[in-house]
Amino acid sequence: MALRTPKDRLAVAIDVTGRDAALRLLEAVGDEAGIIKIGHRLAYSGGFSLIEELAQSGRHVFADLKLLDIDQTVAEGARSVAATGAAYLTVHAYPKAMRAAVDALGPDPALKLLGVTVLTSMDDADLADAGYSDTAETLVMKRARQAKAAGMPGLICSAREAAALRTAVGPDMLLVTPGIRFADGDIGDQKRVVTPQKAIADGADILVMGRPITANADPKAAARRAVDEIEAGLAKRG
Ligand code: C5P
Fold first, then answer.
1. What is the mean pLDDT of the chain?
2. Using CA atoms, how far apart are residues 25 and 27, in angstroms rounded to an integer?
3. How far, in Å, from the CA of 156 to the mean position of ligand 1?
């Protein structure tokens, strides 16, 4: 999917339980955000079929399903998600899993795979606990390079890493960043937040925003505000 307009760069996270709540939220957001992100909470509570329904109705759908399994299972999962017409799918950035998904989809697929480098909820101590000796920063860079080598078109990363990753992986890799907050907004449980304008100015391609839009009394207005900031951020890039 080409990023033609600022709206195409905004993915709203529909993090609710059940189809009915999702449909209500989608109605409240309208088409102010170009991408609808469906993650585990909605997919595992009866919302999985919305991926295909929304895609077939012409929406750009981001299936945030974070695949990681044996190669054949990842390959089959990626093919099944591609058949729904979704535009984006997340895969944990393990080299074998990424290669399996890339090979399964073939050259230049409509479904763009995004590698989850290191979850932003993991710090160095959590990584040590999980058996890794690299710091989060080192592992993010290592996995970003492995994603590029595997032929992945994009990465999920923190907006704070966007500038360094852009240098490491070049201009073509899609950098998709959660942890976005308006300057005057609630941070919630996110720790390292960045405003929409700064994230885009620093080289992020697509912003993932949940609560700053979905918990706002006027979700449409909040999405419009994010899109305005995206436009301003693009102008800053020159
Ligand atoms: O509400 P909020 O804007 O914090 O939502 C962020 C969304 O991005 C959630 O759907 C969350 O699962 C997702 N996400 C994240 N950090 C990551 C990867 C995904 O917050 N590293």
1. 95
2. 5
3. 10
- What is the distance between the alpha carbons of residues 32 and 130, in angstroms, rounded to a whole number? 40
CA distance 113 to 2: 14
7 as an active site residue: the answer is: no
Residue of 7, 37, 66, 112 marked catalytic: 66
* Residue 238 banded pLDDT, cuts 50, 70, 90: low
Q: Whose CA is nearest to atom 2 of ligand 1?
A: 210
Q: Cβ of 2: how many Cβ atoms within 10 Å? A: 5
Domain presence at residue 1: no
The answer, yes or no, to whether any atom of ligand 1 lies below 6 A from the CB of 13, is yes
Closest CA to 37 of 71, 87, 2: 87
CATH of the domain at 222: 3.20.20.70
Cut 0.70: pTM above it = yes
Q: Could you tell me if residue 60 is inside a domain?
A: yes
Higher pLDDT, 2 or 141: 141
- The verdict on residue 198 lying in a domain is yes
The residue whose C-alpha atom lies closest to atom 15 belonging to ligand 1 is 178
Q: Residue 40 carries which DSSP code? A: H
Q: Give yes or no for residue 186 having a pLDDT over 90.
A: no
The answer to whether position 21 is within a domain reads yes
Q: What is the amino acid identity at position 16?
A: V
Q: Specify the number of domains making up the chain.
A: 1
209 lines ligand 1 (CB under 6 A): yes
Q: Whose CA is nearest to atom 12 of ligand 1?
A: 39
